[in-house]
Amino acid sequence: MKIDPNDLGAVSSPGAKGTAGVESGLRRDGGRGVENTGPDRAELSGLAGKISVAVGRDAANRAAQVEQLRGQVIEGDYRPDPAEISRGIVNDALANADASGRSQK
């Protein structure tokens, strides 16, 4: 699709006001006469806010787990399970192979 910048006034969509609400850098709010001269703003949807909270909680949980492991290492009590480590390495390699489209062998 090619857009002709000289013919943008002909583009119409439901609820579109065209260029009638734009005057010398000021924006009018849907014919109500409200002018916004401040900077543009964006608001996050409810889902984006929930994701942000979840990511923050996850970061706090990871930090607590790292501190716990750090304490175990300092005290000499850290005993990693070699079998669990090897399973994790293999599972990670298989997941990466699936993600890149290669077949598992």
What this model shows, in words?
The model is unreliable at 18-25 (pLDDT under 50). The chain has a domain at 46-99. The protein has 105 residues and is mostly helical. It has two helices and three strands.
In a few lines, what is going on in this structure?
By secondary structure, the protein is mainly alpha-helical.
Descriptors:
47% helix, 105 residues, three-stranded antiparallel sheet
Counted by DSSP, the helix tally is: 2
Q: Over the alpha carbons, how many angstroms does the gyration radius reach?
A: 28 Å
Helix content: 40-55%
Q: Supply the helix-strand structural class.
A: mainly alpha
Q: N- to C-terminal separation?
A: 45 Å
Shape: flat
**Physical arrangement of strands within the biggest beta sheet:** 1-2-3
Low-confidence stretches: 18-25
Order of helices and strands: EEEHH
Largest sheet: 3 strands, antiparallel
SSE inventory with pairings:
Elements (H helix, E strand, L loop, with lengths): L21 E2 L2 E3 L6 E2 L9 H30 L6 H19 L5
